[in-house]
Task: inverse folding
């Protein structure tokens, strides 16, 4: 079955700490992978996406993610978080046409 | 080019009433998808429509929920006789074709009292 797992449901960090959010997927075909961010009370924003090519993908706001095919993973990273990164982060895999989302990780950054 | 538009942004309904959620896709997009986000959960696929056709409604509850995407006008997600468990954020996405990236709207937050 197609699925996306995000292992950390809640993460609390201090400003300037490094961030890594895990995402593993289960999907049999060619994958398109995405990370979205949802700030409190706002809609989904695309952080970055992977379709093919360089497995290290750089997105907006200093985020990056690495696609590791052998591990079925697409972890999100940021070297130094800011208070404004407080939000919920969703990993998603696009199947034939529908997106399959993980349950999300709530990140709280302490000033 | 305006993004995906959804209205209303917030909708409050009493139990038993009907809820109608509208989605206008991006210009040039003829494929529309509806997702539901329940509290503490990720988005879950509900239905995929092209103009005048339902392609996949495997994620739609069998009763009370229906969706359409007419030749003219927005896509409509209709929930009849709402119950408290229908309270959620409903997101619409659109794409120019079935295998291309989807663009998400701001969502409609439905509250059933």
Result:
């Amino acid at each position: 079955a197609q699925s996306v797992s995000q292992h950390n449901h809640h993460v609390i960090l201090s400003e300037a700490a490094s961030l890594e959010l895990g995402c593993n997927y289960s999907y049999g075909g060619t994958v398109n992978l995405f990370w979205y961010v949802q700030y409190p009370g706002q809609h989904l924003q695309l952080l970055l996406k992977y379709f093919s090519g360089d497995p290290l993908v750089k997105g907006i706001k200093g985020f990056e993610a690495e696609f590791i095919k052998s591990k079925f993973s697409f972890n999100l990273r940021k070297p130094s978080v800011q208070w404004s990164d407080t939000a919920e982060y969703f990993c998603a895999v696009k199947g034939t046409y529908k997106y399959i989302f993980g349950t999300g990780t709530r990140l709280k950054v302490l000033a | 080019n305006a993004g995906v538009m959804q209205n209303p942004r917030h909708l409050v309904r009493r139990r038993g009433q009907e809820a109608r959620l509208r989605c206008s896709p991006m210009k040039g997009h003829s494929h529309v998808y509806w997702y539901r986000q329940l509290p503490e959960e990720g988005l879950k696929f509900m239905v995929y429509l092209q103009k005048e056709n339902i392609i996949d409604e495997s994620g739609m509850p069998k009763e009370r929920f229906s969706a359409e995407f007419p030749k003219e006008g927005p896509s409509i997600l209709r929930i009849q006789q709402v119950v408290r468990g229908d309270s959620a954020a409903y997101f619409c996405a659109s794409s120019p074709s079935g295998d291309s990236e989807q663009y998400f709207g701001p969502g409609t937050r439905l509250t059933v009292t």
Remarks:
- The interface with chain A takes residues 31, 33, 35, 40-45, 48, 55-56, 59, 91, 93, 98-99, 101-102, 104-107 of chain B (CB under 8 Å).
- The two ends of chain B are 37 Å apart (CA to CA).
